[in-house]
Amino acid sequence: MSYQDFGSFTIRALHQKIKAREIKFTDIIFSVFEKIKKEDEKISAFITLFEEESYQQAQQLDETIKERDNLHPLLGIPFAIKDNICVKGSLATCGSKILANFISPYDATVVTRLKNAGIIIIGKTNMDEFGMGSSTETSYYGPVANPIDNSCVPGGSSGGSAAVIAYHGALGALGTDTGGSVRLPASFCGVVGLKPTYGRVSRYGLIAFASSLDCIGPITKTADDAAIILSTIAGHDEYDATSVKIPTNKPICNPNAIKEYTIGIPEEYFAEGLDSNVAHVVEKTITELKKRCKAVKKISLPHTKYTVATYYLICTAEASSNLARYDGVKYGLRIMGENLISLYEKTRQDGFGTEVKRRILLGTYGLSKGYYDEYYGTAQKVRTLIEQDFDEAFKTCNVIITPTAPTPPFKLGEKISDPLAMYLSDVFTTSPSLAGLPAISIPGIGLAGNFPVGVQIIGPAFGEEYILNCASAIEQINE
Amino acid sequence: MSNKYEVIIGVEIHVQLKTKSKMFCSCAVEFGANPNTNVCPICMGLPGTLPTVNDKAIELAVKVGLALNCTIVEHSTFARKHYFYPDLPKGYQITQYKEPLAVNGFVEVAGTKILIRRLHVEEDSGKSIHSDKESLVDFNRCGVPLIEVVTEPDIRSPEQAVQYLHTLRQILHYLDVSDCDMEKGHFRCEPNISLRPIGQIKFGVRTELKNLNSLRNVREGLEYEINRQATILDEGGKVVQETLYWDEQTKTAGTMRGKEESEDYRYFLEPDLPVLVISKERITTLFKTLPLLPQQRKNVLVEKFEIPNNIAEIIIESKEFADYFDAVMKYCPNYKLVANWLVTEVRSILNEKAITIKDFSISPNQLANLLNMLNENKITGPVAKDIFVEMMNCRKSAQEIAEATGLFLIEDDILLSKIVDEVLNENPDIVTKYKTGKTAVIGFLVGAVLRKTQGKFAPDKVSEMILKHIAGK
User: Fold this and answer.
1) pLDDT at residue A448 is higher than 80
2) Which residues of A are catalytic?
3) Which residue of B has its CA nearest to A102?
4) Are A345 and A454 in a shared domain?
5) Residue A439 belongs to a domain
6) Of A77, A87, B204, B257, which residue is least crowded by CB atoms under 10 Å?
7) pLDDT confidence of B473, banded at 50, 70, 90?
């Protein structure tokens, strides 16, 4: 069989070939699994693979799809799903030992919607345990390597999903983003990662880390592909009371739309600690955009310096609550003890990794009697101030551009024992999360060494259209 | 207990709402189903699941709030209350904390207002079943909607506490929001108790009492705890703040947990649920759907229909009974007769058969027909009772029974005159006695006539005829 690297196609381009009857679905699956077999031993992007099922599904499509005019653009597209999103009948480990044997009895709403569109789920991807990490090194299943340089981290926590897209093991992937977990790995792996507005995409079936921040978002090669996936998964869900009833626009990116845009550049994001190579790429990107947009203006987000602290107080508090259910009683790991308390202690002691335990402790402390006001209560107030910063900024601009991460990818093991340094990787991505705003990471113009550098475009609430248009303008410049 | 102390009681009540489905998922609510059959990923707290609010439960809770004269909070919030226990699958209970659904109400109990501090909605936990070798959990109850109703410390005696519970339960019955079966755990009561020397303003140290699953247990538990605290105070000791667990068998309460062990529930706003908005319009609409409550119905009976207070009290005891009364009244204009019959004859039959009015086989219309016959002097009281018993047995109408057995009163003066003559002739000595002034013997003569006629003549008519005949002799 002649081998063609279908994994290198965009979703849009492969869909054209599918529509034109130029390729068989089984050939696509063959191609991506060849790639996975070649790459994944060193990358470890997957926790579970569904090779046989994928072939079966592809074969069925080859046999049944005759009429090719009105096919969904995702029909037959090989897809990778982060392992904290439930797929019925499959493991959903969250990268944790405590859920190493947990098989979900139901589909997440996003999975149902993607399945209805006809995607082929080829596997579940590796991740930081429960999404807690910025490097995909805290997984019980071992770290994920960056496909561009295997000695470096892919970013986290959706490192598996970003790496798979980068090495062409799948054409579309779902990641989840609580404080940057889609955008940071997209930046480090040189792909596109979109965090939608909070409430745009149903969280039903996403295993919670921090419920008021968690978002499911696509990781793809292009903004256009991200738009296709977003429009498929977005929309109100009766199973998620926080999902909103705002209609989603058609998945079309228009790079020329930026002619009308004013781009805001927050001065607080270009301060000390920003790697000079990263700064250079972002500045160059802005310079190029300036030639094509209405205006570029400096703006101020004055509470930026509190975002990491605020973020870590809120996400740990919610995590301590969300992870309380893993007690060894109903599912997942159980280590028997001499009584109930010791069963709890042993199960949680053995089942959770260091970073997860650290965050449960921090969060429990932050919610405790006598400390609540000082920590969680204060953090909530600051969160409101951060939201107001953005409200104010978007009165004078359409999108805001910042670096996605302060540095290029760092080495595996470099920051794993220094949680504070690790937390600072999220310095630019956490504020849109706290404000619930849509943000995308897209490779900017130029490189930092061997690495592409992610540029973050932040939009107003439910303004995904703006950031996708702007992202596709950058893609056009890069082409 | 000595009279040195004033008793201060506040009560927390959990009521299971009568909804078809659970609070945050669509599982059925049903008592006595096989273990773990009414469960789903949501109420089992499986990873990734989210709660959505059962609007029917909110509707019922708002109705209760309104019936308890509360202010309904237009923007209330849900919170998570954390603790570890196997029957709590998420590791937290979804409840309301800082902004409850309803606040500042009251209930009138025997003329005294008991203030309601707050009312909120929450989810029930599962049920743990322990044996020597293992513990099992049934999650059927997990996620069943509850309301919690909390009073101010306004109650001053166990008697009053029981009255309050009784009144509250009656209101809930009238609203048809809960079955309120204490033994099935539909209505759980957790009082807190403290004593203070008469005249002192500051409250004493309070204890909380759990596991009171009947009104009798509530009374006994409170009496026990009041005596216990009084003894401690009498001896110069200090009451310790703690939670006590009532043992029905030994009639004592043991420490469940002390203040130091009091749990830190780490409440925080439930991020999975938006603010619960109840519009003014909805509150108004729901207010209009409220049925007449027990007190209101009693007032109608007393004021409009001139039914004595104590009888009205019995009639409104249950909504079904009061409804039955209303239904009979529609067909029978003698309200007092209806009221008397309901609280005597009907109630004694219900008690005898140990059934409620719902299972009573005589329809209001049928009963009204019987009472109308009595009211119109077509039958005598004793005959009416006989017919009533017969109606219970054969399910025929009063009319049919009366006709078939010839129980109707006869208005045949010639026949009556003849029989009276017979009786007077048979009892000349009695007639003589009467004539000498012993008028009380008339009763004997009336009885003799009634016996001869099997009660087919009205007693007052018989008596009238006898007098006429004696006078003529």
Assistant:
1) yes
2) 82, 157, 181
3) B47
4) no
5) yes
6) B257
7) low
Check A368 against B266: CB less than 8 A apart: yes
pLDDT at B455: 72
In a domain, A356, yes or no: yes
Same domain, A298 and A316: no
A367 to chain B: closest CA residue: B266
In this structure, the number of other CB atoms found within 10 A of the CB of residue A73 comes to 21
Indicate if A318 and A225 belong to the same structural domain.
no
User: What are the φ and ψ backbone dihedral angles of A58, each rounded to 5 degrees?
Assistant: -65, -40
Select from B41, B80, B89 the Cβ nearest to the Cβ of A321.
B80
Q: What is the tens place of the pLDDT at every residue in B265-285?
A: 999 999 999 999 999 999 999
CB contact under 8 A, B47 and A372: no
Q: What CATH number does the domain containing A169 carry? A: 3.90.1300.10
Q: Tell me what pLDDT residue B261 has.
A: 67
Clarify whether residues A403 and A266 are in a common domain. yes
Give the list of residues 6+ apart from residue A466 with CB closer than 8 angstroms, or none.
A257, A261, A398, A399, A457, A459, A460
**Contact A242/B51, CB-based, under 8 Å?**
no
Residue labelled with tokens 């749990």: B263
Name which of B217, B205, B277 is nearest B242 in CA terms.
B205
> Structurally, how many domains does chain A consist of?
2
CA dist A330 and A351 (Å) reads 14
B273 to chain A: which residues are within 8 Å by CB?
A: 241-242
Interval A105-125: pLDDT, tens: 999 999 999 999 999 999 999
User: What's the one-letter identity of residue A433?
Assistant: S
Spatial CB neighbours of B340, under 8 Å, sequence gap ≥ 6: B311
Contact by Cβ (8 Å): B17, B146: yes
In A, minimum Cα distance to B52 occurs at: A241
Domain match, A139 and A247 both: yes
**Contact residues, chain A, for B137 at CB < 8 Å:** 329
A325 touches chain B (CB under 8 A): yes
157-216 in chain A: CB under 8 A from chain B: 203-208, 210-212
Interface contact flag, A367 B266, Cβ < 8 Å: yes
Is A346 in the same domain as A453?
no
Contact B87, B44 (CB under 8 A): no
B253 touches B225 (CB < 8 A): yes
Would you state the pLDDT for residue A3? 65
CB contact under 8 A, A205 and B89: no
pLDDT digits (tens, 9 = 90+) for B331-382: 998 999 999 999 999 999 999 989 999 999 899 999 999 899 888 878 878 8
- Domain that residue A290 falls in: 1-303+384-479
A379 belongs to a structural domain: no
Q: DSSP assignment of A372-409, as one string?
A: TIIIIIHHHHHHHHHHHHHHHHTTT-SEEEEESSSSSP
What mean pLDDT comes out for the span A304-326?
A: 97
Residue B191: beta bridge partners? B11
What is the average per-residue pLDDT within A200-220?
98
* pLDDT average, residue stretch A432-451: 97
CB proximity under 8 Å: A 280-299 to B: none
Contacting residues of A for B47, CB less than 8 Å apart: 86, 92, 94, 99, 102, 104, 207-208, 325
Task: Establish if A359 belongs to a structural domain.
Answer: yes
Distance from CA of B52 to the nearest CA of A (A): 6
CA–CA gap between residue B32 and residue B17 (Å, rounded): 16
Query: In terms of residues, how long is chain B?
Result: 473
Å from A276 to nearest chain B CA? 39
Residue A378 contacts B, CB cutoff 8 Å: no
Nearest CA distance, A212 vs chain B (angstrom): 5
Q: Which domains does chain B have, with CATH numbers?
A: 5-285 (no CATH), 292-405 (no CATH), 413-472 (1.10.10.410)
Same domain, A129 and A247: yes
A23-51 confidence digits (pLDDT tens): 999 999 999 999 999 999 999 999 999 99
Of A384-388, B290-294, B395-399, least confident by mean pLDDT is B395-399
